[in-house]
Structure formats: C-alpha cells, structure tokens
Write a structure and sequence with these properties.
Elements lengths: L16 E2 L6 E6 L10 E7 L3 E2 L9 E7 L1 E6 L2 E6 L3 E4 L5 E5 L5 E7 L3 H4 L6 E2 L15
Length: 142
C-alpha cells in the first residue's frame, strides 16, 4: 500500500465548485483524481435558502446524509421531507434534486457508487476562488 495519508482529505484540500445557475456548491473530496477511487465519488453539497438545485439522474446508486437544514428531496418529482440527521438512499435511474424551502442552507454529505470521470456532469460548474469560509454558506468542517 502506498502512503495512507493520501486517503484523508480536509475540505480545504479541494476546490469549491458552483453550478452555473448558482443553486448548489460542492466539494468533491473522494474522486479518482483526489484519492484514486475507482468505484466511489463523495463530497459535501450546500444548497442555499429558497433554492432548488438541478435535477440529476445516475446509472448507479447514491446516498445523502443531511448534516444541517431541512427541506425536500424530490424522487421522480415526488417531494419527501428531510432534515438534519436523515440518511437518504437514491436508487439508480431516479430523477432527484434538493428543494430548500427554508431560511438556512441545506448541507449534506453525498456518495455515489461510480468514479467522477464516469459521471461527466461538471460542464457548467466553475471554481469559487477563495471560497473557504466566505459567501452564503457556513463551513462547519474547517
């Protein structure tokens, strides 16, 4: 085994990315590039208050753990209430998004059972320069 410290990441080790429509920020902490993962990609998402992020659909399963906030996860358009402390399983092939109808950000940890290079969904995302600790999102893991 190579140096195991390369498998431990801090939130500040990776860039903060934002969708083109500014409805979500994400840090991709476990990827094929960051730790050499071939079968799992994971990170932390922030969805700002009174926002719904883009609809996603994957050919693999995904899980979310809600760290902070409350809102709804839409499963093929059907809303389900979620709040801090909930674990959500997303079956493959299900359209899904996060709807934040509250006054605080929703923060969730996510893991998808595929490599980032296979997901190919970052075309309209951009890096937020010097974002750690700034703008609309609290950064609880600094």
């Amino acid at each position: 085994m190579s140096d195991p410290t390369k498998y431990v990441k801090k939130i500040t080790d990776v860039p903060v990315l934002e969708t083109g429509d500014k409805t979500m920020r994400d840090v991709f902490m476990v990827t094929d590039e960051t730790v050499g993962s071939q079968e799992v990609t994971a990170g932390i998402v922030w969805v700002p208050p009174h926002t719904q992020n883009h609809t996603d659909n994957h050919t693999c399963e995904e899980i979310f753990y809600i760290i902070q906030g409350r809102g709804k996860i839409l499963f093929d358009g059907t809303p389900v209430d979620v709040e801090a402390g909930n674990m959500v399983f997303m079956p493959k092939g299900v359209d899904h998004c996060v709807h934040n109808d509250s006054d605080e950000p929703i923060i969730l940890v996510w893991a998808i059972m595929d490599s980032l290079s296979n997901l190919g969904e970052l075309a309209d995302w951009h890096e937020i320069e010097n974002a750690h600790g700034k703008d609309w999102s609290p950064w609880p893991f600094m």
